[in-house]
């Protein structure tokens, strides 16, 4: 009996050790990591497409608990880089994504751009999780489970994305006495500035195989013997299926805009920049209409010159030390959105004056939860400019030129690099002081970024909480504020 008992005890010990080993292995293998969504790309015959590049660039939270918004997937903000993934021979791409959009707010959707040299480019919102977020009430879970049972599935899969082959479009200039050395083009079809969208290998024409059948807005651009750009009008072109669509367009000389800052800006002007956006005179498809974007520095006398511009409705903003361009919408100014001033570029060059107004200086002293001065905290505001009444970005940060994007056909242009003005943010020094030197007086709040500390949450009725501190700024003055931060883990933002 003793032998049998010892044998049984030994077997139990072995079983327990095996169970423990299995638990350790499972803990390692199943250690929580960043989730992955499997995206499948197929053609209109449901055949897998290999070699398609899937580039993630934005995130949306699960809509539960009042959360919302579209967050840029910046590489320095998340532990998962927004790297392109290429589909394999089965047409699948495994795309990892961050579990959380911010703090403990869970990701529910990612936005990707899909590109393939033989198919029409496109952007897609991919639902990556429909499961209720942590802390959801029981009634939310009940509805979720009932819906899952109705669909007879417990796995959420992204629907296959269908790409279609494009039609051929050839653009060429009408005969002219000018000698045209280079050709470029813009079109309302998505992806016109991608590396492989336009084929410029044949002299005298520019070709694309990536247009869907239908009506597209198109503009042809050329460069004459004096290295000056010439533009066609933005015209509607009907792309027919199954044929080679060839269009000749007349090129016209470009225009020059000369300008200066209003006289209330003291000379010499320091750190001046001006940014413009030009919308065709008769846009037909709102945000799909290609626009012309460029910028330049302002000299110490407050003047600037911008050559090689197309005709159109021009929007313009400017910034320099101590001054910012006034809101172009004087009837309904906003505390966050600054509207550009507007002018029309017609058949002649244009001379303008940009109305400017004083900014304010904001000095913020940052303390931790023990009232100790905190170094290395990024304090920032976010004044936006509204282009074309539909898109917005940080004021005077979009320092790119459309012509550069057209010329750099071998560069990766999946995103536009923004150069956020240092005027709108500051890093706290060893005295806990962060200085924002040039803030528009309409700004009413600021926020902070730090690896370990955050501002306390501000509850907003009917909306998700925010981590912001309120301010009142006055033109040409210094506003001083002190904020006390708390550890990130104390009260993280979440859905519930």
The total tally of domains equals 4
Helix content estimate:
under 10%
Separation of the first and last Cα atoms = 60 Å
Q: Got a strand count?
A: 38
What's the CATH class of the largest domain, please?
Mainly Beta
Radius of gyration equals: 28 Å
- What kind of sheet is the major sheet? 6 strands, antiparallel
CATH architecture of the largest domain: Sandwich
Low-confidence stretches: none
Quaternary state of the chains = single chain
Percent strand equals 35-45%
User: Which structural class should the secondary elements be placed in?
Assistant: mainly beta
Short note summarizing the structure:
It contains three helices and 38 strands. By secondary structure, it is mainly beta.
Keywords, please?
6-stranded antiparallel sheet; 496 residues; 3 helices; 40% strand; flat; mainly beta; Immunoglobulin-like
Write the layout of secondary structure elements.
Layout lengths: L1 H28 L6 E7 L10 E9 L9 E2 L12 E2 L5 E5 L3 E3 L2 E12 L2 E9 L10 H14 L9 E2 L4 E7 L8 E6 L18 E6 L2 E10 L5 E3 L3 E5 L4 E6 L2 E2 L1 E7 L10 E8 L12 E7 L4 E7 L2 E9 L2 E3 L11 E2 L2 E5 L4 E5 L1 E3 L1 E8 L10 E3 L3 E4 L3 E4 L7 H6 L17 E3 L5 E7 L5 E5 L3 E2 L14 E2 L7 E7 L1 E2 L9
Parallel strand pairs: 1-9, 10-16, 18-26, 24-30, 28-37
Antiparallel strand pairs: 1-5, 2-3, 2-4, 2-7, 6-7, 7-8, 10-12, 11-13, 13-14, 13-15, 14-17, 18-21, 19-20, 19-22, 22-23, 22-25, 23-27, 28-33, 29-32, 29-34, 30-31, 34-36, 35-38
């Amino acid at each position: 009996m003793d032998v049998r008992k010892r044998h049984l005890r030994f077997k139990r010990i072995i079983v327990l050790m095996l169970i423990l080993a299995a638990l350790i292995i499972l803990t390692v293998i199943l250690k929580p990591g960043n989730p992955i969504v499997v995206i499948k790309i197929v053609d209109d015959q449901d055949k897998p497409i290999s070699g398609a590049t899937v580039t993630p660039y934005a995130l949306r939270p699960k809509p539960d608990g009042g959360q919302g918004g579209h967050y840029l997937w910046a590489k320095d903000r998340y532990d998962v880089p927004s790297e392109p993934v290429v589909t394999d021979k089965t047409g699948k791409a495994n795309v990892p994504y961050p579990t959380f959009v911010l703090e403990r707010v869970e990701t529910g959707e990612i936005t990707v751009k899909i590109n393939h040299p033989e198919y029409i480019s496109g952007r897609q919102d991919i639902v990556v999780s429909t499961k209720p977020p942590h802390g959801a009430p029981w009634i939310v879970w009940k509805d979720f489970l009932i819906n899952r049972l109705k669909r007879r599935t417990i796995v959420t899969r992204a629907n296959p994305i269908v790409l279609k082959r494009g039609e051929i479009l050839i653009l060429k200039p009408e005969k002219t006495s000018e000698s045209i050395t280079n050709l470029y083009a813009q079109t309302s079809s998505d992806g016109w500035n991608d590396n492989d969208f336009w084929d410029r290998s044949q002299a005298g024409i520019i070709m694309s195989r990536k247009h869907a059948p239908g009506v597209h807005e198109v503009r042809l651009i050329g460069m004459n013997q004096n290295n000056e750009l010439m533009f066609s009008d933005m015209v509607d072109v009907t792309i027919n299926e199954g044929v080679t669509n060839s269009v000749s367009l007349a090129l016209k000389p470009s225009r020059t805009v000369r300008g200066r800052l209003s006289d209330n800006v003291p000379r010499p002007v320091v750190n001046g920049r001006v940014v413009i956006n030009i919308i065709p005179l008769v846009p037909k498809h709102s945000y799909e209409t290609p626009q012309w974007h460029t910028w330049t520095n302002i000299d110490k006398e407050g003047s600037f010159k911008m050559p090689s511009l197309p005709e159109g409705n021009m929007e313009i903003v400017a910034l320099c030390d101590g001054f910012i361009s006034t809101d172009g919408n004087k009837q309904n100014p906003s505390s966050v959105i600054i509207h550009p001033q507007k002018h029309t570029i017609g058949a002649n060059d244009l001379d303008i004056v940009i109305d400017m107004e004083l900014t304010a200086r904001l000095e913020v002293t940052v303390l931790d939860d023990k009232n100790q001065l905190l170094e290395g905290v990024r304090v920032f505001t976010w004044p936006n400019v509204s282009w074309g009444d539909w898109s917005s970005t940080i004021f005077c940060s979009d320092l790119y030129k459309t012509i550069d994007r057209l010329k750099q056909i071998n560069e990766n242009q999946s995103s536009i690099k923004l150069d956020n003005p240092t005027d709108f943010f500051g890093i706290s020094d060893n005295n806990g002081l962060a200085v924002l030197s040039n803030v528009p007086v309409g700004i009413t709040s600021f926020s902070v970024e730090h690896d370990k500390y955050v501002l306390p949450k501000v509850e907003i009725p009917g909306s998700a909480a925010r981590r912001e501190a309120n301010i009142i700024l006055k033109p040409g003055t210094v506003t001083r504020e002190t904020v006390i931060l708390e550890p990130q883990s104390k009260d993280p933002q979440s859905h519930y």
